[in-house]
Request: fold
Amino acid sequence: ETGVTQTPRHLVMGMTNKKSLKCEQHLGHNAMYWYKQSAKKPLELMFVYNFKEQTENNSVPSRFSPECPNSSHLFLHLHTLQPEDSALYLCASSQEAVLGQGTGNTIYFGEGSWLTVV
Amino acid sequence: RKEVEQDPGPFNVPEGATVAFNCTYSNSASQSFFWYRQDCRKEPKLLMSVYSSGNEDGRFTAQLNRASQYISLLIRDSKLSDSATYLCVGGSDGQNFVFGPGTRLSVLP
Reply:
């Protein structure tokens, strides 16, 4: 079982739909992330939130809109997506948003949301 | 140059073999390193942290070579269940986690 839960696990949406991905972490962490993983591509960092504040937006198109109401919850709102946005979207959390020597700070992933845009 | 690089593989090895992967990093200030394992269609999971002096966890040994800026993962006595993609993660103080693209391992019966 995981301390980071994501819903839905699978989502099929049309290009004109609006949907949201939800993530909740039960680890008491302060930082949360959205990553995108496309077929045969490395993990792409999309957004970072630290203590509910967005600290990084990795040049993500505006059709992806994150929301972090508190340190335990993170949403990714999806609107007018393209077929090339089909991918595995992974939520993650860590104690802190950045690495620090000797802190043991590391990152834990949810099981992911498989998104297909048709 | 990408921050963290790995040979994508696949590495195809027989059961019982010893296999090693390297991961190079470009930021000489990087201090924290990890190895993650990702099974097909699953999320990455932490395998082990990498400490300066090197560390071992059962059949897995992680090493850090600061002079050449790489970390390594050695798997002894490979099992079929070790088949997965292995991701290295690096970064320095104040930096976000930086993932490598992963190395795919297939352990064959």
Notes: The two ends of chain A are 31 Å apart (CA to CA). The CA atoms of residues 68 and 78 of chain A lie 14 Å apart.
